[in-house]
Amino acid sequence: MGALAVGGELQALSRGDVPAVVASLPVSLRLAEPSDLVALEGGPGWPERVAAATARGVMVVHPTPAAPEAVPAHPGAPVVLNYRFADNPVMPTAARLFTDWPADAMIEAAAVVAQPAELDGVLLDQLATLRRLGSPAVELTRLTWSSAGYYLSAVTRTGVRLLLSAHVTTATSPQLRIRGLAPSVALELTLPDPGTAQPAVLVRTTDAGATKFPTLWESSHRAGWRRLVAAVDGTTPADDLTGLRTDLGLLAPLLPAS
């Protein structure tokens, strides 16, 4: 298969840093019309635009909450949801470390965002990140929510306690930090905003000391496009929408009224 033509909505191309990503993957991708792959902005109405897309593959850049019933159950082409944090290439390694996380332990997901308008989207991103770590939430309880951020408690199907939070500030770059705390081991995963060009940091600490895992110099945007190419050529299926519908069902009663 030759390089796939990429196009899409201007805002999605900008927010997803698509021209730079395509330039860095010249064997797989090229900017051209008509497009094999389309990038859609993940703001209001994105599920309807996914359902109407006629491309061979669809990328939704920074998806935000939508009604679960609006999300296509059987889209006409592979769909990848390109989250700011959950698509970081370190996630498969981190997921192996979180395998069989003990039920008497906990996981904390703490995000930093720049604007209150980003809170809904980062919460969806946190849930996607936990799902890709093998620790999806099955319950959510809203503790506090304001323009300054939120705190929510949750639990996984195996009983692991979760604490999800977000803080609105411009004093530091956006990021998501995941901390797993168990009796004999601690894991800390720091996921940077893809716009910073910083790598993720993954550290495992036990009684024997701390182990820092190898650095992967790739943004979540680039990793997301590689996933879409793999889905289109049949190498790896994309099932992002399946977990999303479950997460959206958890969110619906918790989000502030618009």
For this structure, what is the CATH class of the largest domain? Alpha Beta
Percent strand equals 25-35%
**Would you list the SSEs in sequence order as H and E?**
EHHEEHEEHEHEEEEEEEHH
Helical stretch count? 7
Measured on Cα atoms, how large is the radius of gyration? 18 Å
Q: What's the helical proportion of residues?
A: 25-40%
What class would the helix/strand composition place it in? alpha/beta
> What is the domain tally?
2
CATH topology of the largest domain: Dihydrodipicolinate Reductase, domain 2
Q: Name the average pLDDT.
A: 94
Count the strands? 13
The CATH architecture classification of the largest domain is 2-Layer Sandwich
Largest sheet: 8 strands, mixed
Shape: globular
Major sheet: order of its strands?
Answer: 7-8-9-6-10-11-12-13
CATH homologous superfamily of the largest domain - what is it? Dihydrodipicolinate Reductase, domain 2
First-residue to last-residue Cα separation: 45 Å
How is the topology of this model organized?
Blueprint: E1 4-8, H1 10-15, H2 18-24, E2 29-31, E3 37-41, H3 46-52, E4 57-61, E5 79-82, H4 91-97, E6 106-113, H5 119-132, E7 137-146, E8 149-156, E9 161-168, E10 175-181, E11 186-192, E12 201-206, E13 209-212, H6 220-232, H7 240-251
Parallel strand pairs: 1-2, 1-3, 3-4, 4-5, 6-9
Antiparallel strand pairs: 6-10, 7-8, 8-9, 10-11, 11-12, 12-13
Helix pairs in contact: 5-7
